[in-house]
Design goal:
By secondary structure, the protein is α+β, with helices and mostly antiparallel strands. It has one domain: Alpha-Beta Complex (Nucleoside Triphosphate Pyrophosphohydrolase), CATH 3.90.79. It is built from five helices and 13 strands. The strands form four sheets. Strands 7, 8, 9, 10, 11, 12 and 13 form a seven-stranded mixed beta sheet that branches. The relative contact order is 0.18. Keywords: Coiled coil. This is ADP-ribose pyrophosphatase, mitochondrial.
Length: 340
Amino acid sequence: MAGPHLVKALATTSLFLAPPRSNILASWSHFFSHGFPLDVIMSGSKGAAETPHKKARTSPYPGSKVQRSQVPTEKVSWQVEWAEYNPGEYTASSVLAGPVWADPQVGERNFSPKFNEKDGNVERRSQFGLYEVENGRTRNPMGRTGLAGRGLLGRWGPNHAADPILTRWKRDSQGSKVIHPVSGKGILQFAAIKRKDCGEWAIPGGMVDPGEKISTTLKREFGEEAMNSLQKSRAEMQELEKQLNKLFSQEHFVVYKGYVDDPRNTDNAWMETEAVNYHDETGEMIDQLPLEAGDDAKKVKWVDMNDRLKLYASHSQFIQLVAEKRGAHWSEDLYPDSHR
């Protein structure tokens, strides 16, 4: 494939020292030593992915009865010859209707996208590096998914999202940190939503609008999904804006930037995200937030971080990275297998 296919660093602010190796591919040993090969997988330019995407090969496709062609793990990589591979095609009617957030079909007049570039206000560059374009169609850099087209995704190629991870320490009725009896570490909580589309618990987040800064997306999506900002009055919104501006202007660190093993991915369109952690050490600021489910969320609540969480897409892995960075409790297993 074209390009080095590298993923950007796990960036940090001055709150943490930058990791000694500057990209995810070079950090696989770190991830494996901490007990998890990420589902947000990467593949090098010399062979198949170390851990080929799994959720991007599941059937039926979300919100439909469409079945993917079965893709064995050993045939996920495009570099593996598979002459018989002939997946079905599916693009949701909501995408074909031509909303402002979606591209036209390839081949339509006046649609000449600049792939692998900033295309006007539309970001068509990938965190993963250069991706291939074949017959006018982008090709998923992680390999085959068993389905062509765009599914529920609006853009050909990368579809960029942002996931704000707001955290606080769990405290007892006296305001003291709750310490886990096995690990001896504090228990970290994050604001989680229950998605309307699939019923899974997740980090609140959403798509980056064309020309929008990631910081704006993070604040907007948290407000819409975890604070129901779309249903607030003007006066309520003004107060909400003050709270959000204060919360999202504090120190933070980027947990992850890159490809996400998402069930909506196809051979021609895929999800990428930037997950960012905002932490309130005392809890004084975050405790004042009036959590209320809204927009794409059915419920919202504070959830304890631990290794038993089952979250949407690759969100469990993002949560583990936050717990480790903050020195919080994660697992009750005091002697984990370092190669698990």
